Amino acid sequence: MNDVAKHERELTTEERILIGDGHKNVITPLIDSWKILLKKMEEFRGNMEKISQIKEYKKDLKKMIHTICTDALKGDWNRYFAEITIHGRKTFMDEAESAYKMVATRIDEVKLPSFDPLRLRLQLSHAIFNYDILNEHSVAHDIAVKARDDSNGELGGLSREAHSESYNMLEAIQNQLIKWDFQ
Question: In 10 A of CB 160, how many CB atoms?
């Protein structure tokens, strides 16, 4: 995945989406594992042998996440590390927020259409960052709703493939909104 992203030619939208999907499919289970280990630490509080094992697993998992995220999008990279870091967490949070704002500015500068799947993916990532890391639930909700509402009704003139990709991203945004409503 990293080798493809390092090619000198500019990637197509489809290639960027595939790389993003591949990255997400690799990193999400690792982040989920991290969260499980945190719960297990609470569960085994007082059992030093189990806590020691969990700390070793966490150390290995953190190395793995670092290796994978080194070449990822800066906002997502910092978001992932904000989730798994205690010391220096604020730095990762600030870096992620800065990266997401920079990307949003660039998207506006190049006038990427509101229904572009890359734009929708970045908006969803930014919303998840606000919800999960900053605990800014209303901000996250507003970002996701704006992304969904701005692109509604604009999918008609797209090719079948582009329409499908955008529709899938809109569905992911809607699913995230539903998930947040039930939390």
Answer: 7
